Amino acid sequence: MKITIGHLYPDLLNLYGDRGNIQCMRKRCEWRGIEAEVREYQLTDSIDFSNLDIVLLGGGSDREQMLVCEKLKTIQKDFRDYVEAGGVVIAVCGGYQLLGHYYDTDDGRIEGLSLVDLYTEQGSPRLISNIVIENELFEQPIVGFENHGGRTYIGDNRPLGKVKFGYGNNGKDGAEGILYKNVVGTYLHGPLLPKNPGVCDYLIRNALERKYGKSELAPLDDSQELEANQYIVGRFC
Amino acid sequence: MRVRRLIAVWTAKIVSTVCRLSGRQGVTLAGRIALKIDPRILADLSSMVREKIFVVCGTNGKTTTNNLLCSAIESEGKKLVCNHTGSNMLSGVTAAFVLAAGDNGKLDADYACIEIDEASTLRIFPHFKPDYMVLTNLFRDQLDRYGEIDITMDILDRAMKMAPEMTVIVNGDDALSAYLAMKSGNPYKTYGISEQVFKEQSSEQNGHEIREGRFCKNCGARLEYEFYHYSQIGTYHCPNCEFARPKIDFDASHIDMSNGLKFEVEGRQMEADYRGFYNIYNILAAYSAARTAGLALADFDDVLKKFNPQNGRMEQFVIDGTQVVLNLAKNPAGFNQNISAVMEDEKPKDIIIVINDNAQDGTDISWLWDVDFDRFAQESIRSITVSGIRCQDMRLRMKYVDIPSELIADVRSAIEARIKDGCGNLYVLVNYTALFSTRNILVGMQR
Predict the structure, then answer these.
(1) Nearest-by-CA chain B residue for A222
(2) Are A113 and A90 spatial neighbours (Cβ–Cβ below 8 Å)?
(3) Among B172, B227, B166, which Cα is nearest to B58's?
(4) Are strands B322-328 and B315-319 parallel, antiparallel or unpaired?
(5) Residue A24 annotated in active site
(6) What percent of chain A has pLDDT over 70?
(7) Helix axes B27-37, B2-21, angle to 10 degrees
(8) How far apart are CA A47 and CA A79, in angstroms?
(9) Could you say which of A24, A93, A148, A200 is catalytic?
(10) Angle at CA B379, nearest 5°, toward B376 and B380?
(11) CB of B147 less than 8 A from some CB of A
């Protein structure tokens, strides 16, 4: 078995340890004997989504997002078809904001991909904190770090989790992130996946199921991951 | 006003002494109290500096550069004020001046050399306008405090505009720093290394090392590099607009790192007996700043020989027969350079990595994943021990590059364990708040 991970524009969107998310997916595949290939795409590359099983869209500064958003218009249709067909996406921070319709900043509007029904508005101050959220889908709480000026509103969509500590999407409605089809969007970095192996395996499982129609992930020894996870939960909750 | 200043100076000195006697670093507290008592104290005292005021800014290398600049100026027989301990926000800078003042509330100094946290420039420059600013480099650092690197650049841009006569001495090999200086309108001088030093970079260094500012700050096009020294430091130009690496005023050549550091600048031979390519930039920065200010630096060779980058910058200890090197690493660029410096030592070695997430460290430790720890997968590394408040994150980081590590959360226990069972050659790599406590432990053990 093999999965291919597409890392979109790492030159511009790589702000908060996104390499850790890539490394985590790659290793947790390799440790199970699943081949994992990572393809990095630059702004000048064209992307054939039919070759990809997981797409990672990371975080960048507002200025860098502005540069990326021009390019995104040209891949919007292909990307949407991929998402609607159940393609797996993990989008973090700036990448999460770009999934939506727009991000209104003081310097103007950054048009999003409109892949998911959400929008973001700049607020003050930045929401900076360790964060713990919960969702029954996952055995452990999800822990990470958030740092965002944007307030994201997801309407009736399903959040990735309920905020136990920290701010979440907008600091008001208690929701963090979004789950839409096989898309996960979130403000959590730290990076997200190493301390939340359940989320990583959720992405890998969905990718394998879509590609091979079935997936049985062999269990791994996650004691170090879970200890690091529990440390954060114990300290802040 | 005079009385206020006197009370402020005396109170600050007492506070600082009491703190020191009780084993705490009371510098920032002393500065804060002095400013409370006399809000004009920093402006007044700094105006008494007879010749020039230097400030040193930039993500990495501030403390070493500033301390070396101090030594260089002192070698010219000048008296100066300096924040040696690296307390570099408003209260720390105030403390440097206040604690240097005499009991009569007056300052007797020819020069001031002050390192300043980039974000604090806007709070400090209203008190005094420096004559010179050294700008070492800009990397991602403590993002939770600054937001993003663009914000730091914006702050420095405003700071330069607040002091339009200030000459900027800038690392021309860093496109971000150079861009700031070039467009500021301030006079500037540049330093850099025009020759390619690392002929064959390993593929992971080439491919994955985090590089800031790949895109032209002027027009947004992707910058083209002739070569990199490390991170985004190198020789670059924009293919789309006129922005390019500036002409270098102080150019280091004939770089030789086979035994310590050797290079030439202005036809003079430089030699230092410590490791780390990045230290060439620190030496070059201090040298260029002093030369720009018109100092002859006739005894600079001697200054370099005597200079020991203390305060946990490649600081050496001997404890029960074990050689211990303590080194600060607080962001990906700094850590990658540290790893290079450690790997320049080919002898077997044990490594302890101490990671805290206190406010001054930046509570966000995601940067650990931007460091190329896979380079520790070498024969000569006998063991890796992870310690400090976020030791579990550090252990996980190592696990995901398939390098096993031992977790000993308590720093003293970790050091004791490796001195007892290690190979006699120990590197302790720490981030910011771990530095002071770890250094105290090592100083105590050496005694």
Answers:
(1) B396
(2) no
(3) B172
(4) antiparallel
(5) no
(6) 100
(7) 160
(8) 9
(9) A93
(10) 80
(11) yes
Cis peptide before A125 (omega within 30 of 0): yes
Give Cα separations from B369 to A15, A196, B85, B114, B331 (angstroms): 11, 15, 29, 32, 10
The first and second tokens of residue A31, run together, are 């440790």
Least confident stretch, B139-143, B161-165, B421-425: B139-143
Residue A232 backbone zone (phi > 0: left; psi -120 to 50: alpha; other: beta): alpha
Helix and strand numbers, DSSP H then E, in chain B: 16, 18
Is A148 within 8 Å of chain B by CB? Answer: no
Q: How far apart are CA B398 and CA B374, in angstroms?
A: 8
Q: Residue B385 pLDDT > 60, yes or no?
A: yes
Cβ-count burial B291-320 (b if 16+ within 10 Å, e if not): bbbebebebbeebbeebebebbbbbebebe
Dump pLDDT digits (tens) for B105-150.
999 999 999 999 999 999 999 999 999 999 999 987 765 555 578 8
Within 8 A by CB and 6+ apart from A183, the residues are A83, A88, A89, A91, A99, A115, A116
Scan residues 351-410 of B and list those with Cβ closer than 8 Å to A. 363-370, 392-393, 395-397, 399-402
As a whole number of angstroms, the distance between CA B272 and CA B120 comes to 32
Strand order in the sheet with A35-41: A35-41, A2-8, A54-57, A88-92, A183-186, A178-180
Which tokens in the block code for residue A125? 């101050």
Single-letter code of the amino acid located at B238 = C
Note the pLDDT tens digit of each residue in A75-93: 999 999 999 999 999 999 9
**Alpha carbon distance B344, B336 (integer Å):** 12
Instruction: Tally A–B CB contacts below 8 A.
Output: 83
- DSSP letter, residue A16: S
User: Whose structure tokens read 């420095």?
Assistant: B156
Q: Please report the beta strands in B320-411, taking only residues with DSSP state E, as ranges in sequence order.
A: 322-328, 349-354, 381-387, 406-407
Distance, in Å, from the CA atom of B4 to the CA atom of B25, rounded to the nearest integer, reads 25
Say how far apart CA A183 and CA A171 lie, in whole Å.
22
* Residue B325 exposed, middle or buried by CB count within 10 Å (0-12, 13-18, 19+): buried
Residues A92-131: tens digit of each pLDDT:
999 999 999 999 988 889 899 999 999 999 999 999 999 9
Give backbone dihedrals phi and psi of B111, rounded to 5 degrees, phi first.
-130, 160
Domains, chain B, in order of start with CATH, read 48-306 (3.40.1190.10), 315-446 (3.90.190.20)
Is the distance from CB of B169 to CB of B192 less than 8 angstroms?
Answer: no
| Residue pointed to by tokens 């399903």 | A158
* Residue among A56, A9, A6, A5 nearest A35 (CA): A5
Please indicate if any CB of chain A lies within 8 Å of the CB of B219: no
Q: Does A109 touch chain B (CB under 8 A)?
A: no
Domain ranges, residue A54: 2-236
Burial classification of residue B214, based on how many CB atoms lie within 10 Å of its CB (0-12 exposed, 13-18 middle, 19 or more buried)? middle
CATH at residue A63 = 3.40.50.880
Rounded CA separation A47/A40 (Å) = 10
Among the partner residues A23, A61, A194, nearest to B150 by beta-carbon distance:
A61
What was the ipTM of the complex prediction?
0.95
Q: Measured between alpha carbons, how far is B90 from B31 in angstroms, rounded to an integer? A: 8
Asked if B378 and B353 touch (Cβ cutoff 8 Å), the reply is no
Total domains in chain A come to: 1
| B343 touching A (Cβ < 8 Å) | no
Q: Catalytic site residue A189? A: yes
User: Residue by residue, what is the 3-state secondary structure of B231-291?
Assistant: CCEEEEECCCCCCECCCCCEECEEEECCCCEEEEECCEEEEECCCCCHHHHHHHHHHHHHH
